[in-house]
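Summary for the funding panel

The consortium committed to producing paired sequence-structure records for every protein in the target list. Below we show the first two records in order, beginning with the earlier of the two.
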Amino acid sequence: MFILGLNAYHADSSAAIFKDGILIAAIEEERFRRIKHWAGFPSEAVMFCLKEAGITLAEVDHICIGRDPKAKFLRKVLFVLKTLGKKNSLLSDRLNNSKKVASIESELSALSGLSEGVVKSKIVNVEHHRSHLASAFFASPFEEAAIVSIDGSGDFTTTMIAVGKGNKIDVIDSIDFPVSAGLFYTAFTQYLGFPHYGDEYKVMGLAPYGKPVYADLVRKIIRFSEDGLFTWVPDYFANITEIKLDYSTHIPVVSTLYGNKMVEVFGAPRQPKEELTQKHKDIAASVQLICEELIIHILNHLQKRTGLKNICIAGGVAQNSVANGKVIEKTNFENLYIPSAGHDAGISMGSALYTHNHILKQERVPPVYNAYTGSKFSNEEIEAFLNSKGIAYQRLDDDKLFDKITDKLIEPGVVGWFSGRAEFGPRALGGRSILADPRNNHAKELLNLKIKKRESFRPFAPSILKEFVGEYFEKVEDVPFMEKVFPIKKEKQHLIPAVTHVDGTGRLQTVSSDVSPRYYALIDKFRTKTGIPILLNTSFNENEPIVNTPAEALDCFLRTQMDMLVLENCLIER
């Protein structure tokens, strides 16, 4: 049985395909379109998934859409009735987007040659947050777990809590739009001068440079409730009817979310090009602290309510790796699973898993610890491409190749690493990575100024051999998807300054030989030469989606100051 999952006409559109519950391929449309957070119909991702599965759309049994127009229908009607007679940009945008979603049948028909009627017979609508819940629980190793989905909004819900058992998910409660932890964080992201969709991670990176001196003021905006959920004070936010969520150009655009009350309390908002002051850093620290308190509040109540020891988290807020790193420490949960695509791209995977397990009542399959589900290219394909471009290269076996790469890293140099399948999710995990020596005091400045061309306060991640986590970090957990931040032991921080953030933490990726054998072997080669079982890892891109093809990798290499490019076993040096 083949199931195709889609996230369409929503930010981070994507497709994923399963055979008998086993994930074959999953990829974001942005990797093909080269536009970050692309929000149209994922036609290229669909065709990629079908090709990887070796089938046509006619052979797909179910096409699952991570959106259900019927979800909370009466509450949506009540919301509309309350806002009748007012200028309503939000309603207009949602209606326009709904028309696009209704066109999915015609889009798939045009792609496949199937009639719209045949396509319609295959479609299953799965509520946005149920898809998030499923992307975490059904991919986890847990037979039973509490589950939380928290993001901006989807299908009129912003937070959903549930219990998963076997092949079933039971929703316990939810919070209706507009009250939203995601929109709360986005409002402050905009206030701090980061206007683009998806900029929230910049606030998380900035927070350690400040102190939470505004925490009490920020805490007044979000009100924790006794049922383990929360409300907010609407005066701090823009009038809900005037909010604009626009996907018309396939680039997600969110209008200004903060209101006059926020400006009155915290002062004039920072303009995008304006210098970052200590006040801005302190506000970022305060917002991050309250976000963490809110997540822990929800989780602690859910744990008491369910008595369970396992927790799964998904949704955009699940990308807050700093908060994720504190879950086991600050709650009574003992085990945590977060998928590689906790954000909206994971909706495609989640809607398919929900259909396979919850709706069709099929048996669970082994847990997902491997995010390498995207594009791949053989050495022969890469050589043909390089020859067509007249690019000089060497093709080496792994032993010789890894020896040259590690020598270049130690020199010190920066290496573009393109190996195996691309990762599903926002983080490079050794498939499409830029690598550097974590011991190099100047690596951050070099990468930010000459390659990544981004803000200097943003940290770089340590990829560490799984067996050595306890030697370098104060906590020991599996972190296969770079989804948690842990404190680095004080006595080790001076050894790896390039991956130690200003507060002494690192957003680690644990690398295991069974999941990432080639990347593991490269890091291990570096360890034998330096004694350090870690490489600095950042995504292979320059203010664009992560590179998807050898041509894009070569282009990024040529326009930046990387020292070496590795395309599978093909080595290019300046």
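The next record, for a separate protein in the list, is shown here:
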Amino acid sequence: MKAHLEQFLADALAVLKANDVVPADVNPPITISRTRDAAHGDYASNLAMILAKPAGRAPRDIAQAILDAAPLPSDISKAELAGPGFINFFAADAVQASVVGKVLSAKEKYGLSDAGMGQRWQVEFVSANPTGPLHVGHGRGAALGATISNLLTAVGVEVEREYYVNDAGRQMDILATSVWLRYLEAHGQKLDFPSNGYQGDYIADIATKLGAEQDDALVRPAADVFKDVPADEPAGGDKELHIDGLIVNTKSLLGGDNYRTVFDEAVNSVLDGIKHDLAEFKVIYDSWFSEASIANDVARCIDKLDEAGHIYEQEGAKVFRSSAFGDEKDRVVVRSNGLTTYFASDIAYINNKIERGYDKVLYLFGADHHGYTDRMYAACEALGHPREKLEFLLIQFANLFRDGERVQMSTRSGSFVTIRELFEEIGVDAARYFYVMRRYQQHLDFDLDLAKSQSKNNPVYYVQYAHARICSMQRELGHKNLEFDSEAGLASLALLDTAEEAELLTLLNKYPEVVEKAAFEHEPHQLTGYLRDLANGLHIYYGAHKVLVDDAALRNARFCLLLAVKQVLVNGLSLINVSTPEVM
């Protein structure tokens, strides 16, 4: 129907140009939008308002000229002028009702499209350093990334979901050192644990596992571990210099092979936990990409930038001229001590992604990375790739509330709520739904008490209950020994003439557009908002009208409508990876 309206407006515009009503060189985009109020029709266009200025005529005059220029599509019953020059279009009742048959025929495929066919995207999300379990802050990026990927797939885009594993660099060395120090404590060594080490219980758990495998083979005197190490912050020193000194001594005392043993035990243990938690959270990746795997590419990319004149030396360090490509300042890629920076690895990773042939690379970053995107664009362009290949979504933080009080969290100190603890407390369904039901640019206040409640105030419960309510009516149909004939119901859809039925039909027709819009605008909250409206329409309908009536034709028609609503609820919730229980 939307395509028919777009063609109608294009034909009308051609007539207006031929009649010199509109200049021939005026070619505005033709857009059709859904109306918010059914009283204003089903679709609306502002084309007349766009054409008014170049045509030198009032918008309403242009709007009337459009309607006079070409016959309305057969699936539109009427069109009306509104406001300063909008044109509102009303779908024919038979066309509106025909959606029931479309849904019941297409089943789980209803709402899918080929709008993005031929495009190949990569979506990278979460990618938290494997230095500890995922906490509730990571959960929002996980739910959003997975749902956006599902939406893009639903509109025909070929999507690869990737987790970038930061398994190289200083943070991993801090992790390994933290585990070894806990191992030494467990083997009787007395020491002051560094304030900048990782201190969660999981560190002790990994150390215990290391001890079970290595016994006391890795024990070294604590005095040697802390020899010549700068004082820690509690002792008036610098915590960064302190931990760096401990890392140097750890590597020296253990030697290459033994240090690798500790390092791998620490990283793999944390990463295995992350993979397990995400899988139970219904987040599945196509690729777990190792930062260590592109170590050789880092030097190659820096050399490429250097050859292109984008690198200069300053106080022994190599600096990328990122300011020449729109960044606020230039960025160090190789420190004066010869070690590459974290950003240098990101440069190699960008190059690697684009060389894999993606049409678009979508990053989901936390809002605290807002200053990072410009340097990423700069690196992309300096490497010779179109910056349009990259797209960033900056996700605001999720604040957890319990009993009306905000839960305080700190990853380094180990004082945080893990994503596993969250979904074990409230369930995967509630966690997934709550994470995506707000615009990602907005802060999310996650109310645990609301998420656990079984009331209409709980949005996921409210939507799932609409599905369960229809299932209950199906069971009641059998209990009352009433017959249901779907073919007869589809032939009797004209009987669906109440305002509540018209609203449900409008919503069913709207679903494919919602999926497409939510996919390309990367806004899953549009889908959850739609599902809320559909569930609300169902609940209102249930309260206003009896479905299991004696009139077989009306009963069949109404039951077909309910089954279509049920199918769309299933389709929509599946895109968020939320279940559809039959009994609640």
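Regarding this second record: Residues 239-280 form the longest helix (42 residues). The longest strand covers residues 158-165.
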